[in-house]
Amino acid sequence: KPNLLSGMQPSAGSLHLGNYLGALVNWTKMQDDYNAFYCVVDLHAITVPQDPKELRQNTRITAAQYLAAGIDENKSALFVQSHVPAHAQLAWVLMTLTGFGEAGRMTQFKDKSQKAGADSTSVGLFTYPVLQAADILLYQPKAVPVGEDQRQHIELTRDLATRFNSRFGETFVIPEGVILKETAKIYDLQNPEAKMSKSGDPKGLVNIMDESAVIVKKIKSAVTDTDAAIRFDREAKPGVSNLLGIHSAISGQSIDALVAHFDGKGYGDLKGEVAEVVLAEIEPIRDRANELLADPAELDRLLAKGAAKANEQAEKTLATVYERVGFIPAA
Ligand code: TYM
């Protein structure tokens, strides 16, 4: 089986519907056909300030959600990034191959650093995509399932791998991003031109760990438009299109079938049904995640098992890299 790697940040206290539909659903599907490594990227989380106690809790919450959504710890390695020292070690080597301008062109860095201002932007945020490249390249994966917003980081990863290979000899597999077309981007319910994100409007953000009543309220207050027709048109009707997209992603019905189904009905009907579909999908995951969180020692044991598997693969790649760049063996 080919290898696969992906990861998510633990910073929000809960994954949101965009993380789930854009990436996690695909992770669970792909784990049968790939030797998969799924990571909670706590090193990435600290590129913006984190409360240590909350970070610990959020890391376990994220891992519990992976499991609750169907990641099987016997098929895939589920681990925490800081448990595998090779991530930071390879990132250092790759940083020496990354251009200052090249890193400066990453749009997520530009957005985040512009919002925060230069004095509140850490150097870690600047080098974030290089650490992400290290996460990926250590596992020699063919596939990296992510949402649309990660496309540029995957491109950088491919460029760095190609650069390393041509300078030091074939070392890294060049990975492909696997981006689901239909759910590549789930939009903010309050601001449906922007992606759903933990840094967006909290009312526009559906969290997997939210109470059911909260989820229903957020979906029922989703922004639509003044024209009452239920059609799919991202430009003219971003809010309605987002709701149709979410429904379709979960129910498996095509957009055309849904538009026919809602013919003659109103936005209230659409929102009511989307809320039902979302709850039916999310509630069991939330409840299972809460059960897992009730036994943190068991969760930590699963994560230790995943880290052992990940370390084995990662150390192999790092040893080759160290040797290729000219470091002498430590022995
Ligand atoms: P993160 O933690 O922001 O998001 C995790 C995954 O969810 C996807 N996603 C979305 N998909 C659709 N619609 C949305 N609104 C939406 N919001 C988020 C993201 O594309 C991602 O797949 N840099 C990464 C974490 C990372 C990583 C890696 C990913 C670190 N190392 C190695 C892959 C491989 C990030 O911040 O994702």
TrEMBL record:
It is found in: Cytoplasm. It catalyses: tRNA(Trp) + L-tryptophan + ATP = L-tryptophyl-tRNA(Trp) + AMP + diphosphate + H(+). It holds the Pfam family tRNA-synt_1b. Keywords: Aminoacyl-tRNA synthetase, ATP-binding, Cytoplasm, Ligase, Nucleotide-binding, Protein biosynthesis. A motif ('KMSKS' region) lies at residues 195-199. ATP binds at Q9, P10, S11, G18, N19, G147, E148, D149, I186, K195, M196, S197, K198, S199. Homodimer. Belongs to the class-I aminoacyl-tRNA synthetase family. Catalyzes the attachment of tryptophan to tRNA(Trp). This is Tryptophan--tRNA ligase. It comes from Rhodoluna lacicola. The lineage of its organism: Bacteria, Bacillati, Actinomycetota, Actinomycetes, Micrococcales.
